[in-house]
Description:
By secondary structure, the chain is mainly α. The chain contains 6 helices and no strands. Helix 3 (46-56) packs antiparallel against helix 5.
Amino acid sequence: MPHIRSQKYAQRALGLIQKVKDDNKQVKEYRTLALNFPTMILQSGLAQAIGFLQAKGKEEHLLLLAHIAELLGENKDSLHKKILEADLSHYQLLTRQAIEAASSLKRYTQALLPKPKDEQGGQS
């Protein structure tokens, strides 16, 4: 039975976030970015949000960029160029898909990556 796009994003996002949990030293920074990225796309636009990740160039920014690109089935190095060259209808489609992909990453980030102690309301 074929899966809908959001199911495919969710399946792939689960594996990506599990890898972050197991391997990454930048869990706190990645968590913050992943939780805020769907909103960043809505507020700034897809091209600017992806450009922000590239411009920062830190490990957690590049990792989130790679995850978004992977969920969209794109290469992280050419994703921004593809977005910039897209006509209006294709840009809108890419934006919708990126928000869905980023939302899947956000959901699994909330579920799997621990909150830093300072965000837990003083509880240990």
